[in-house]
Write a sequence for this structure.
């Protein structure tokens, strides 16, 4: 039985500071001019008809100018309004990510298999979840995506799919939550129990057993192991792909997935995900060769 003590990991950068830029929008409001008629002096000579005619023409001219000013203001407002709306649409408002970098929500995952088998690990948690700005990431959805992704990687190398095993998955899930609650990251728990020890306490139909584990975070920048890039998981599908990438970028974990570790292979497996309230994600993927 092959057990591994090395695990891939993802960690937070030493300095986790990010700033979101919000474009400043300026609004200039024009002050309309008001025509104020001049007061006529009491000692002014009486107006002639000609001057009265000029006064009427002057009044009409002022009314015409006023109408032009009002029309210009209304037209200017109509022209400027779309610019302000465009500016508002360009504001970065999704956490630390610009709107155009927001990932699409997860697609519908292919159901992995039985969720409530007759025999389960009594220490297994229920569903755990975390809300991001894109979607609510649930542990069972991530498990479905991981199982499908692992089988896709196996198919790429001409290896048949693993059958989903709900009992094995419950043992995986219990180990994931235990690592979070007792603050360790290892195949061997603080009680000295390894992967097969934990499974044999629940059932005994596997003649060979293996385990891959990983730890990462959701909804914050993390440095991706083996890829020299910073990523931020905001969807269940993206998180699942990142977890499988961790394992595939590690020689021993890749060997376990692709059955390059020994002369025997696996015929079934189960994924256990636990998502903590602070966004920490613990993943265990256990492999089994049935008797």
């Amino acid at each position: 039985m092959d057990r591994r003590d090395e695990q891939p990991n993802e960690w937070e950068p030493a300095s986790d500071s990010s700033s979101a830029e919000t474009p400043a929008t300026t609004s200039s409001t024009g002050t309309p001019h008001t025509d104020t008629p001049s007061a006529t002096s009491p000692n002014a000579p009486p107006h002639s008809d000609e001057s009265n005619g000029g006064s009427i023409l002057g009044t009409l001219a002022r009314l015409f100018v006023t109408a032009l000013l009002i029309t210009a203001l209304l037209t200017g407002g109509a022209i400027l309004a779309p610019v302000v709306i465009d500016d508002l649409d360009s504001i970065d408002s999704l956490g630390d990510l610009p709107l155009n970098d927001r990932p699409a929500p997860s697609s519908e995952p292919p159901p992995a298999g039985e969720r409530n088998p007759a025999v389960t690990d009594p220490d297994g948690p229920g569903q755990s979840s975390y809300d991001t700005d894109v979607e609510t990431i649930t542990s069972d959805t991530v498990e479905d995506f991981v199982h499908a992704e692992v089988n896709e990687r196996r198919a790429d190398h001409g290896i048949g799919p693993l059958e989903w095993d709900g009992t094995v998955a419950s043992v995986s899930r219990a180990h994931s939550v235990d690592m979070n609650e007792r603050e360790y990251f290892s195949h061997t728990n603080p009680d000295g129990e390894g992967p097969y020890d934990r499974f044999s306490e629940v059932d005994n139909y596997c003649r060979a057993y293996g385990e891959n584990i990983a730890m990462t975070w959701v909804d914050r920048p993390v440095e991706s192991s083996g890829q020299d890039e910073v990523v931020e998981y905001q969807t269940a599908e993206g998180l699942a792909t990142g977890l499988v990438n961790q394992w595939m970028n590690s020689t021993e974990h890749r060997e376990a997935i692709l059955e390059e570790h020994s002369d025997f292979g696996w015929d079934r497996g189960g994924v256990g995900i636990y998502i903590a309230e602070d966004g920490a994600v613990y993943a265990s993927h256990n492999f089994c060769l049935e008797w």
Q: What stands out?
A: Strands lie at 129-131, 136-138, 163-164, 206-217, 222-224, 229-231, 268-275, 280-290. Residues 179 and 185 are 6 Å apart (CA to CA).
